[in-house]
Amino acid sequence: MRYKSFLAATLLGTSLMVAPGCQDDFAKTNTNQSAITKADVRYLFTQMLSEFEPSKYQQWFYNNLAYTLRWTQANVPDGGNTSSLNLMGAFEGSQSQVINVKLYAEEIKHVLSLMDENEKATYENINVLANPLLVYLGIFGTDMYGSIAYTEAGRGLHEEILTPAYQSQEELFPIWLDQLNETIDVLLADKPNQVKLDAQDFVYKGDTKLWAKFANSLKLKIAVRMLHVDKAKALAIAEEAVNNKAGIMSGLDDDFIYCKGSQEYHFGDDVLDGQSKGIGSKQLINFLVDNKDPRVRFIFQKNDFNSKVVQAFLDNKKELPPYIKEVAEIKDGKFEGWKAPGEPWVRYFGSPVQTSARENAEINNAYFNYDKFKLPTEDGGEKQYYPLARMNREMLQGQKDYTFPDAPGVSATIDDQDRAWYGLHYSSAEVALYLAELKLLGANLPGSAESYYQEGIRLSVQEYDKLASLNQIPYYSSVYDKEFEKTIKLEDGETDALLANEKYKLSGSTKEQLEKVYIQQYVHFLLFPNEQFVQVRRSGVPMKDSKVLAWENFTDDDANFQIPRRWTINTPLQSDLMYTIKKTAYEAQGFTTGTQDPATLNRERIWYDKGAPNFGEGPNF
């Protein structure tokens, strides 16, 4: 027991706090107890905050890019979708994230328990700041699994709880609401002599009012998830949050923007796997470009076909992709400019989602046959060019180089400046769009659905522009092709023009208005794939036959092509200490373990997903 405790404390990066029964032996074999330095709670908080990572490398590489973004019809791989699209292979779990943070939260509580009451009282604010982080990651952890270990999790070091109980979503949601309310009550109580975090808090710089607002706004994540299982409770949660003294997130300064430091690059390996992953779907990119939605420029990267590359294809008598040829002004073999809508919009094209698309020779050559997009080089080789818009890697990771496309033989110009990564984990736009949804469903809120909806779009555009600026993505404020290229930063009047588009106006029946709200959530969540999947799963939007943004059939017989609604769960081993707990939890939810059958994973739903529409069916309230 003593060795285990020492090892666990070492892994935590904290000083060992020894149980009374171990003190004598510890002193004999190590050093005097009084000589041990007490852990600094502020530093423990910073380490806890640095462990806050919903989507790690494996989450992006497997879960997001291989599954959820494809299942929501947001992304397509470079070779197109196949009939095995709905089959799960390797994937990353989503419960370790909350455990990683909870270990530090429990360590903070333990350190505080060793203090006298007067000293302990000065850390009340810091102590409750763990709550919103844990609630956020707890929601993330349960979205694809249902029941998880939470309350007793992370308590093995000091309490020796090695078999933490699993709790259902129905049990967890009230616990999380209580934790958020506790945080708000403590932070707004203006308690005296509180230890300040300042720069140790790299999100809100120790501003307790912003933390309280963040905690209060997280209630809306719970509310929208409860709409199909307890609508009255969901609406009541929203009404309480809006009227809470903490306030709700409503501007860019309230956003949970995350940057650990100047040399923090957000995992090193390339999650986009070169150019093969993260290509936007055709219907999504068309929707964004047709409506001149600036977010397409920040979330997706311009393709390689600038005027220099187009001219190189013409000079080599190489056929241009048809969609690029369609927007290029070409006369006598010379590129003369871009047709409407012009730069930068003409650099964004998506890929069809249908599993049969690559079986059509014409479609295959236009989108999937990358040999068609190569030009010969002077040394007898070939240079590859990419005609489609894929997710912007510098919005996902820092320290990424970008080579500006040009004709073969031209010396490469590379943007190789190392920059830290800035991420956004919770935003005022998300909050406003939730409020628009909840208002339409009957919540008694002070604003109109339209006002929340419009503000959500405005904030979403501004937030993505801010992230693009902070991450200094290619083309944000400068161009390479100086004659025919434009920057992508947000211009004055763009958001007003966006809101004037018919497909962005909140009009029609309640169901039609809900569809538009869900579409805006869908777009906003493009860099938050778990949230996007949850939104599509609970709303049925995008919906089939939509006049705004339609859900496409993956196959000709789409009714029998089932998309999983939860992750596969390994069958617990009898040698696992948690065997009985896990087995009981899975059986209580009616889950089949050890299966990858899409129909089973579609049929067996987590608690709050019960009653939600099938994919593409639209709202069913």
TrEMBL record:
UniProt keywords (A-Z) are: Signal
Superkingdom field = Bacteria
Lineage, please? Bacteria, Pseudomonadati, Bacteroidota, Bacteroidia, Bacteroidales
Leader peptide range in chain numbering: 1-19
The answer on whether this UniProt entry bears the keyword Signal reads yes
**Pfam families from the xrefs?**
SusD-like (PF12741), SusD-like_2 (PF12771)
- Protein name (Swiss-Prot/TrEMBL): SusD/RagB family nutrient-binding outer membrane lipoprotein
Q: Which SUPFAM superfamilies match?
A: TPR-like
